[in-house]
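Blinded run. Sample ID left blank on purpose so nobody reads anything into the name before looking at the predicted structure. Input follows.
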Amino acid sequence: GQTINALAKQIPNLLGGSADLASSNETTIKTVAAFSRHNYAGRNLWFGVREHAMGAILNGMAAHGGVRVYGATFLVFSDYLRPAIRLAGLMKLPVTYVFTHDSIGVGEDGPTHQPIEHLASLRIIPNVVLIRPADANETVAAWRYSIGQNEHPVALALTRQKLPVLPGTDQLAQTGVARGAYILSKEATERIDAILLASGSEVSLAYRAKQRLEAQGLSIRLVSIPSFALFDMQDQAYRDEILPPHITARVGVEMAHPFGWDRYLGNAGEMVGIDHFGASAPAPELMKHFGFTEDAV
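Blinded prediction complete.
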């Protein structure tokens, strides 16, 4: 929300809104009024509870040109937008989707509102770039990438739960997010005993696990991987620099279906993920119950 409002001051043709979830998505531009038939100068669009129509309207505005548009809802409801997202990818429209509440961290709303397969399903749509930021700095970098290109739609997957600002992201995220993955925390010695890879809210969990492992004498590399699509666009030299092929001890951490992670983890890697529906309980209880803990990692 802070990033949107900062951008809105610099980009007068930025406008967007939410499918009746603006207060939860944090997508309101606070300095201007709502767009309506009485106020064409408004920049906040109230799409109503109709995600597919929102997606179609965003496509129309992006295809017309002259504006930069975004639309928001919970990640689990991206299913309703899917035909419009697919067309945005097909038409190479620079639409930004703001998908929040991106995991079982939704908590008491229960399994109907807890996305499991949605990250994987968005990642496989051609020409769509999914970015799952780990903290505030990665979120700023994700917006910078999305606003700075005109080639394809970008889907941001953002958490509900509060996250710490991770050490180093103020500098590293500025270039690392646009490259899809980067070394957030280097190994303690010249050797690498294992690589931890994580996206989004789980990067801070992996960071704590790395600290515990290093207290036991291991040397651990932590890689933040906010975007599979952007990482796969990099040349082989960069990908090998981030994930040295000879280091086969790898653990991925993401509160989502593990589909697609195998190409980074390899045959010897392990995944801390979730391939079934969630449950209704406070988020901390769900994390413990489903194994998203420092001990599990």
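Unblinding after everyone has recorded impressions. The CA atoms of residues 33 and 59 lie 22 Å apart.
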